């Protein structure tokens, strides 16, 4: 069966100048001037805007239309709704790691990229744990890995100095050695700088802590273990205690108020998976250039938070061409360009070893060699945390609102009990 499908794809490529496509949706989408239109659905910042223009220039028969959603949750809700409806999906759909398990459960609705994609693009191009997560039990590759999220810590140098804390990236490392030292420094900061919080959001701190553990919301057999996992409760207690001591700015991540918080300096530290650099630069704006710094120290070591994949749903009417575009976007050269544009850190091995990456300087963050910094952080990640069914919903729709309710005055124990009950509902 595999060889027959590969023949079909090759025939499709040969006749790509024709008016129809062998993609799963029938006739290809065409623009008024006869180009093949490829739609790409992403969320947050992937750093693809200039890459799309580059690809179109090299492929004059292709027109790329981007559907960009500001946050991950509505993007994935739309994805699963249209999967159920059987129509309406983009040719290339981005999937964040927290939602990947739901896609893998519906893998029959996505193309095997080993069959329809360029034959030279094989899983060994990626970090093993990155490719393994998108590979089915029968060895079908459902997604090309885009970025990963090795963790570092970002902070405002000027606000640290105002609080009497060290501000040089090497000197601040002792503050970020453990979560205990991090929260202790937060106590000193809020005492010295009234009106400015230590961190932006309880949920953002909790998510970073949670992603450091071997076992998260689900064990590897996909059993919900929220209530029985002591690490989750320990993280909850540490974060809600810091909230009670006034360390949180009580902002909802990716809200307008959170965006404005970067610009106005309403908090001093930010957990920084590599992709967060682009978010900070965009939201803090040019007037804050040089005020933000990033250090390779991270409480309790390191970890991975985030990272996505590009998939080609079987709904695509241009499956072979969509796979070719997805393969190009995730190639080492383009992964480096996306990192330079928005801080999305490469997941392909050749990119991680590239001089272009290791020598990359981020002028916004005080000319730090961000590529080398995050490449070192990757080495601290031995495996990605297993993400079970409803992992993304539990993170974004259960624990984030529960922690926000604590920031708004709800008792931490009551909010914990609510989160447990809502997690059980989400996992059904």
Secondary-structure blueprint of this entry?
Blueprint: H1 2-14, E1 36-43, H2 49-58, E2 62-69, H3 72-85, E3 92-96, H4 97-105, H5 113-116, H6 128-133, E4 143-156, H7 157-162, H8 179-192, E5 197-199, H9 202-210, H10 230-244, H11 256-264, E6 267-273, H12 276-284, E7 292-295, E8 304-311, H13 319-329, H14 332-342, E9 345-346, H15 349-352, H16 355-358, H17 370-378, H18 391-407, H19 412-427
Parallel strand pairs: 1-2, 1-3, 5-6
Antiparallel strand pairs: 3-8, 4-6, 4-7, 4-8, 4-9
Pfam family, one: SBP_bac_8
Protein name: Sugar ABC transporter substrate-binding protein
InterPro entries: Bact_solute-bd_prot1, SBP
List SSEs in N-to-C order: HEHEHEHHHEHHEHHHEHEEHHEHHHHH
Mean of all residue-level pLDDT scores: 91
Number of strands: 9
* CATH architecture descriptor name of the largest domain: 3-Layer(aba) Sandwich
Q: Which CATH C-level class of the largest domain is it?
A: Alpha Beta
What does this structure look like?
This protein is α/β, with parallel strands linked by helices and 428 residues long. It folds into 2 domains: 2-146 and 307-346, 3-Layer(aba) Sandwich (D-Maltodextrin-Binding Protein, domain 2); 150-305 and 358-427, Periplasmic binding protein-like II (D-Maltodextrin-Binding Protein, domain 2). It is built from 19 helices and 9 strands. The protein has helices at residues 2-14, 49-58, 72-85, 97-105, 113-116, 128-133, 157-162, 179-192, 202-210, 230-244, 256-264, 276-284, 319-329, 332-342, 349-352, 355-358, 370-378, 391-407, 412-427; strands spanning 36-43, 62-69, 92-96, 143-156, 197-199, 267-273, 292-295, 304-311, 345-346. Strands 1, 2, 3, 4, 5, 6, 7, 8 and 9 form a 9-stranded mixed β-sheet that branches. α9 (202-210) packs antiparallel against α10. It is globular, with a radius of gyration of 22 Å. 49% of the residues are buried.
């Amino acid at each position: 069966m595999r060889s027959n499908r590969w023949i079909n794809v090759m025939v499709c490529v040969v006749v790509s100048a024709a008016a129809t496509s062998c993609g799963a949706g029938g006739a290809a989408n065409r623009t008024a001037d006869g180009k093949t239109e490829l739609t790409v659905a992403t969320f947050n910042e992937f750093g693809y805007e200039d890459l799309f223009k580059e690809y179109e220039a090299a492929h004059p028969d292709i027109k790329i239309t981007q559907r960009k959603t500001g946050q991950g949750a509505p993007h994935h809700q739309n994805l699963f709704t249209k999967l159920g409806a059987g129509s309406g999906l983009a040719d290339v759909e981005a999937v964040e790691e927290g939602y990947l398990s739901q896609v893998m459960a519906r893998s029959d609705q996505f193309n095997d990229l080993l069959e329809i994609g360029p034959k030279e693009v094989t899983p060994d191009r990626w970090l093993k744990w990155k490719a393994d997560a998108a590979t089915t039990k029968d060895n079908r590759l459902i997604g090309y890995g885009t970025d990963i999220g090795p963790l570092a810590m970002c902070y405002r140098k000027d606000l640290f100095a105002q609080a009497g804390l060290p501000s040089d990236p090497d000197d601040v490392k002792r503050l970020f050695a453990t979560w205990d030292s991090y929260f202790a420094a937060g106590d000193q900061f809020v005492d010295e700088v009234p009106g400015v919080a230590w961190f932006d959001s309880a949920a953002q701190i909790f998510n970073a802590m949670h992603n450091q553990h071997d076992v998260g919301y689900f064990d590897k057999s996909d059993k919900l273990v929220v209530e029985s996992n002591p690490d989750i409760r320990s993280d909850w207690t540490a974060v809600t205690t810091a909230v009670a001591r006034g360390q949180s700015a009580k902002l909802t991540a990716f809200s307008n108020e959170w965006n404005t918080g970067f610009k106005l300096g309403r908090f001093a530290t930010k957990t920084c998976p590599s992709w967060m650099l682009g978010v900070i630069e965009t939201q803090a704006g040019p007037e804050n250039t040089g005020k933000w710094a990033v250090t390779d120290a991270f409480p309790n070591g390191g970890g991975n938070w985030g990272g996505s994949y590009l998939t080609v749903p079987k709904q695509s009417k241009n499956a072979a061409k969509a796979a070719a575009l997805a393969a190009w976007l995730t190639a080492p050269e383009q992964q480096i360009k996306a990192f330079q544009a928005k801080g999305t850190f490469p997941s392909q091995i050749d990119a991680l070893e590239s001089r272009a990456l290791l020598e990359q300087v981020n002028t916004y963050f005080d000319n730090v060699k961000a590529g080398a910094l995050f490449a070192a952080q990757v080495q601290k990640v031995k495996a990605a945390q297993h993400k079970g069914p409803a992992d993304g919903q539990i993170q974004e729709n259960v624990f984030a609102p529960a922690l926000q309710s604590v920031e708004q005055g709800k008792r931490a124990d009551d909010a914990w009990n609510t989160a447990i009950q809502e997690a059980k509902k989400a996992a059904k």
